[in-house]
Structure formats: structure tokens, C-alpha cells
Amino acid sequence: MREVVTIGLRNLARRRARTALTLGMIFFGTLLIVFGVGLGEGTYADLIELATRSWAGHFQITADDYQDKPSLFTTIDDYTPLLTELEQNEEVAAVAPRVESAGLLALGNRTTGVLATGVDPIKENKVTTVAKTVREGEWLRAGGEDEALPIILGSGVAKRLRAKLGDEVSFVGQAADGSIAADLFTVTGIMNSGMLEVDSAAVMIRLDDAQELLSLKGRIHKIVGISTSISLVDELGSSLKLPGNLHYRGWKAVMPQLAQTIKSDRAGLWLFNLILLAVVALGVTNTISMAVIERSRELGVMSALGTTPARLVGIVLGEAAWLSIIGVGAGLAAGIGVNLLTLKWEIPIGSEPISYGGIEIASMHATNTVEAVIYWPAIILLFALIAALPPAIRTARMRPAEAIREG
CA-CA distance, 189 to 166, in Å (whole number)? Predict the structure, then answer.
């Protein structure tokens, strides 16, 4: 075995230009894959953070089929113990309760349909960035019963009602007890989140006010939360023991379009990586094939002297292994270094940042994920060795007399 390794390493120096060209091909192929996968995963993580922290959260807990068929009457009853349990979970960073109800909002003789969301001002601020989207006025405050009831309007709602700060608007809807839910609110803020579905129809009021308005004391419609790491979302759902009528949904189920977009983009990245792998494999096959042809006389003599076919294959694969290990190792080290550099000097995405839900992304960065620094380099090594098998097997099948004569 030691001889196989030594001969394989020695053979790299025979044709230095060809060896350097092949090493360069493996090096740049590995570098591009490590950087490409790292950049892709870093971008996906930013997109997920952008979407989940803006409004939807990493996960949501609802009753029965509320996610698919929202209803005023489909509620989580006596939610306080569950909220406390989630807050004490080490994998949960923060949770916030919400109440939701459709209704009509009026100002003067102007009326528009809205989705009123009751939120805990403090807890909501820990889960989402919606408070940062308030461009005029201020975010909701937890206040006393005597003060005017505050309301935050989406920019689209404010535009249709021609509402401004300080205006008094009336909300009319249905309460859970069958009565008419109606009350007056004072506009204390106008939000512009960049999310069309939120800005065009959403209004925010305090959770206590919403529960009183809708006769939902002690009940909510959903719990929105964020985990300590986005990678723990699925694991968290499996570990939680919820009552039978409650359902846990991770961000992929809450936002299937985003999940599908990332899945499709990953498939494109895989295709690009497979093309690079094919180029690397062809380069290794060509180099090893040329090496076998040039040394056919030498290999024929070794065979005639009693070297077994398995040892001949080992010698050829030893050279391929050294090429792969050196090339992949150098490319991996360079790729990790480049990914780390992008964390400090990020790659700008354009003249203007992407703004969504109070979060702005002005640049991209790569991350050294397990896929980038372990899985794909291992695949490159495997492909390179497989690519060397055909010329290695051809060596084992050579007849000594013919090999010596051809050489």
C-alpha cells in the first residue's frame, strides 16, 4: 500500500504542466462549488429571515383548520398556559398571540374593508419587525383603559380613507357572541411594510382591545413565534406536545410559495454544480488516460515481472487520488476563505436595497454550511476517483507483451 501511495505521488511530477492544469481545474471547480453553495445558502437564509421576521414568524400555532379557513369562531381557548410553556422552551426565542377579524373601517363618508389584527405591542415587537414599518406616528403602546383606543393603518387603507394621524375612525364587524362589534379608534400610526397584502388591508389594534371588541376574552386565533435557529423549526414542531385540536406549522407550510421558490433555485444550483463536476471528471479521466498511455511500457514490464492487476489499478488510482486530494483540499480552503471574506465585505446587490417588512437587504454573503464545505467536496473527490476508474481498469486488462511493444 505504501508503494502505491509513493508511486502515485511521484508520478505527479512527470508531466508537471499537465498535472498543474488538472489541479487547477479541480481547484477552481471546488472553489466555485463551495462559494456558489455558500452564497446560495446565505441568500436563502436572508430571504427566509426577511419573510418570516416581517410578519409570518418562523412558526404558527392555530386551532383546527384556521390556517386554511380563517374563522372568527375557530380559536385557541385558555392560551396563557401554552404561551408560557412556549416561552420557557429553550428552542423558542419569542412568541406572540394574535386575534384577527375582518370588518369595515370608516372615516366620514368613506368606508373600506380591512383585516383587523389584535397584537400584544411588546410581544409582537419581539417576534416580528412590523413595528419598524410605522413610517408616520408611533407603534402601539400598552396603555390604560381611559386613553383613546389606538389603531395603526396600512398605507393602502390610509390612502383609501384619506386618513391622517389623529383622525378618529370607526370599526364595524361581527363579535363572537353574535352581536355587532363596533368601536371608535384614533389613528396613531401609518405603516408601510412593502407587503401589498398587509399595507392594502391590515390594521393593528391592541390585543386586549380586540378581545373586548370581538367578545373573545381569554381566546386568540393564532400564536406566532420565532425559534432560536431557523434550522430548528421542524424539530420544534415534532417535540411540542399540543392538544389534539391545535396544529403547528413551520414557515414552509405558512409560506409555501417561498419554500417552492427556494427549492426550485436549489435545483438550478444542483444542475450548475453537476456541470462543474462533469468538467472536473473529464479532466481527471483525460489526465489519467494520457498517463497510462505514456507509461504503457513501464506498466507492461511491471505486469510481466509479476505485479498483480489489483496493484496496477492501485498505482493508477493513487495518482488520481493525489490529484483529487490536493486540488479539492486547496479549493476547499480557498472557498472557505472567500466565504468568510464575504461576511466582512459583503457583495452589494444593486444601487438600492431590497426592503420588505421593515427589514432591508443591501448585500449578499456566503456561509460555510455543511453542504458547502463537507458534502460537495466529498462528492467532488468521489467523482474524481470514479472518473479515474476506466483508465485504471484498462491498465489491469493490458497484456504485458502488447503493452511493452506499444510503449
Answer: 9
State the pLDDT at residue 161: 96
The count of other CB atoms within 10 Å of the CB of residue 260 is 11
pLDDT tens digits along 48-98: 888 888 889 999 999 988 988 899 999 999 999 999 999 999 999 999 999
Q: Do 145 and 138 form a contact (C-beta atoms < 8 A)? A: no
What stretch of H or E contains 157?
A: helix 155-161
Hey, how many other C-beta atoms are within 10 angstroms of the C-beta on 147? 9
Per the document, the length of the chain is: 407
- Contact yes or no for 385/321 (Cβ under 8 A): yes
Contacts of 128 (CB under 8 A, 6+ apart): 53, 54, 55, 57, 96, 224, 357
Count CB neighbours of 39 within 10 A.
20
Distance between CA atoms of 94 and 88, rounded to whole angstroms? 9
Model pLDDT, residue 400: 57
Q: What is the pLDDT at residue 198?
A: 84
- Please, are residues 324 and 284 in contact by the beta-carbon 8 Å criterion? yes
CB 103 within 8 A of CB 171: yes
What gap in Å lies between CA 303 and CA 310, rounded to an integer?
Answer: 11
Q: How far apart are CA 98 and CA 210, in angstroms?
A: 9
CA atoms within 13 A on the CB side of 55: 18
Distance (Å, whole) CA 10 – CA 208: 78
Grid look-up 390585543 returns 207
Tell me which residue of 169, 195, 197, 173 sits closest to 184, measured CA to CA.
169
Residues of the chain with pLDDT under 50: 357-358, 403
How confident is the model at residue 398, as a pLDDT? Answer: 64
